[in-house]
Amino acid sequence: MDTMTNRRAIIDIGSNSIRLVVYSYDSLQGLVEHHNIKTVARLSMYIDSKGNLHEDGVQLLLETLAKFKEILEDIQVKHVFAAATAAIRQAENREEILVYIEDKLGFSLSILTTEQEAYFGYLAVIHSTNIPTAVTIDMGGGSTEITFFKNKELVHMHSLPFGTVSLKRRFMENAEMTQEERILLSNYVMDQLQPLTWLHNLQVPIIAIGGSARNIAQVDQQRKDFPLNGIHQYELQAIDLEDISSQFADCSLDELKKIDGLSSDRADIIVPALETFRLFMDTVKAPSFIYSKRGLREGIILSELAEKFPLEFQVNEVAQDAIRHILGKFHVNEESTLHLYDIFTTIYEQFIDWNYIESLENEQLLRYAYILFYIGEHIDQDAASQHTFYLLTNLNVDGISNEERLIIALLASYKNKDTFKQYVSTYKKIIPANEAKKLRDIGALIRFTKGMDVLGRSNIKQVTLTQSSDEIVLTFSVVGNYLLEKYQAEKLKKHVEKIVNNQVILVFN
After folding, report:
1. Which of 46, 242, 471, 488 would bridge with 503, disulfide CB 3.0–4.6 Å?
2. What are the DSSP calls for 52-104, one per residue?
3. pTM, 2 dp
4. What average pLDDT is seen over the chain?
């Protein structure tokens, strides 16, 4: 896509906030977000006793959209899709609002149905996580959309007639929720969930979308001093929600605003959201609560892109596509990164048989780490290891959990024992000592193999390994000139010798 003219914009008119997102897509780099601008509007608070969006709310909407229009004109983005959800959908005067906005600004607003809103959230989740079966919950300001998918196929969807803003309005008389109000809210939410028999006792993960879920995940990361950057696919347990609920229960509104990870503009609505999530998790009997950064807006975008580029949006190849897009950002061809991968796997598997190393539980991560090995050299060759580790521990990678991303980062950045020890020391809560040793040895083996690929060619065709009491012999079958490969292998074989604690002999013929 051309940098400017092929950019697209989504305006998400929610009950709590109105957001403008500008993006572009190409097959190499994937979906790229260029701008993300939010205004907290709380449109649900402007619904009057007759069900109309009050004039003050309409004017706030108009003013916000007028600002967005000015921004879009300034950055020359002409393709705009403006989607309105619960606040406008539920307003009795919605048709008048649509006519008024189009007359004043030339914007044609699309009011999403509850089914569309639920579907777009589901679509975003299946294209950005590797979880085959789960329940999604997207809690907005005025409604809550839920779905159940199995093997990434949509099975059920439903819209609950409440959101964070409407729950606050109905059950909180003052800034803080009382115990009596909490009980009333819980009874109301359970009454809404009770008829949904398909939801009960599913015992599958919950994937939560939206700002309230994001804030709860951020609070949990802060209170646990979670060392890895990135919020997408962050996982909490039921006990975590209980602990956060207890923490919030003792806080005034001013104290909530000071909690690390909690946005001040959500402090007054976070308790109704958290209590709903707890009840939802208990109803589903979910083993985990996972936050998805991808939601409604990404679902709208994906619905368009998947139709245009069906081969590039396979729901069972999310991680593979994400890795390909990382390479694309640095203009690296994936095939070129896999030189000598068969050589690596041959040595790796033999070393497992000989009990020199332990196998990695998810061996697909080996391939990803091999592909991304020293990707940071495209920033600075002299600091390739450091840049690789920083990049991979700070990127959100769709389809790969936070822990898996850390494993890939440690393997792909391996330089030597000392740098590995330095990198892993910050993550002892995630990577225990026995796991660290395994990753260090595998990383050293990748370093050795990738180091032989000095000219970006595949002159080494095969390797055989023999073992004796005092040495291990690696015999490489080669074609053409192999002097540089041999030089690099001799230089780097010390990494292999440290794994096997023995002498390593290299033979090229």
Report:
1. 471
2. PBPHHHHHHHHHHHHHHHHHHHHTT--EEEEEE-HHHHT-TTHHHHHHHHHHH
3. 0.92
4. 95
Per-residue pLDDT reduced to its tens digit, 405-462: 999 999 999 999 999 999 999 999 899 999 999 999 999 999 999 999 988 888 899 9
- Helix 417-424 with 433-452: angle, nearest 10 deg: 140
Token couple for 420: 């590995």
Q: Tell me which long-range contacts 219-223 makes (C-beta under 8 A, separation of at least 24).
A: 219/244, 219/259, 219/260, 219/261, 219/262, 220/244, 220/261, 221/261, 222/259, 222/260, 222/261, 223/247, 223/260, 223/261
Closest by alpha carbon to 409, among 380, 430, 434?
Answer: 430
Query: Are the C-beta atoms of 46 and 53 separated by less than 8 Å?
Result: yes
Of 323, 327, 332, nearest to 404 by C-alpha is 323
Domain annotation for the chain: domains and CATH numbers? 8-112 (3.30.420.40), 115-297 (3.30.420.150), 318-508 (1.10.3210.10)
Task: Report d(CA 411, CA 443) in Å as an integer.
Answer: 4
Q: Which residues of 163-191 are buried (b: 16+ CB within 10 A; e: fewer)?
A: bbbbbbbebbeeebbeeebbeebeebbee
Tokens of 505: 């002999």
* Sheet (strand 8-13) strand order: 30-40, 17-26, 8-13, 79-84, 109-111
Cβ atoms 437, 498 nearer than 8 A: no
Percent of the chain with pLDDT over 90: 93
Close Cβ partners of 41 (under 8 Å, ≥ 6 residues apart)? 16, 17, 18, 57, 60, 61, 64
* H or E, element range at 474: strand 471-478
Phi, psi of 234 (to 5 degrees): -70, 140
Rounded-to-integer distance, Cα 412 and Cα 388, Å: 7
Q: What is the pLDDT of residues 64-95, one digit of tens each?
A: 999 999 999 999 999 999 999 999 999 999 99
What is the gyration radius of the CA atoms in the chain, in angstroms?
A: 26
For residue 29, pLDDT over 50 is answered with yes
- Tell which residue, 257, 225, 266, has the closest CA to residue 38: 266
